[in-house]
Design goal:
8 helices, globular, mainly alpha, about 70% helix
Length: about 190
Amino acid sequence: MFIRFGSAAVVAVLATPALAHTGAEPHMHGLLAGLAHPLGGLDHMLAMIAVGVWSALAAGRRVWIVPAIFVAAMLAGAGFAQAGGALPAAENAIAMSVVALGVLIAAGVGLPVGAGAALIALFAIFHGYAHGIEATGAVAGYMAGFAVTTAVLHVSGIALGRAIAIVPHASRLLGAGIAASGAYLVATL
């Protein structure tokens, strides 16, 4: 028990504030900026990997449905931002998605495919909105880039989820660490 909470505390202390979406500088460099953008903030990296881990642990043979829905809904959120839509408190929602995904992993929650897909789509819309609100210039290339990197992070999470599935309590520890990191991100907003 102490190891679980100790590990979560270490991750929370070592986590850095989410600075991926300062709003100070729009992204104007197309594909390469899009490829790099999801790697620029702990909130996005944790969420993308957690989506893959949760999918690997909870979705069985349907492991690819949740990540595919995430990418599609993320692109829809980016399109909504580009169309001038507004989502208040997007950064808070992104940080909370990290907490929620960590809790789902730690608790071993498996949802029916429809419910899981809807939850993931909601998270993804906020992530996509945050990407899309800063995009200018070669927007299509930028969006393609962050979609590719997101998919790669999902695949990494699936591989991690499958690897830890055979280790007793590993998913609980990882989920607790992700949730703790998300809680830290929420607290630093």
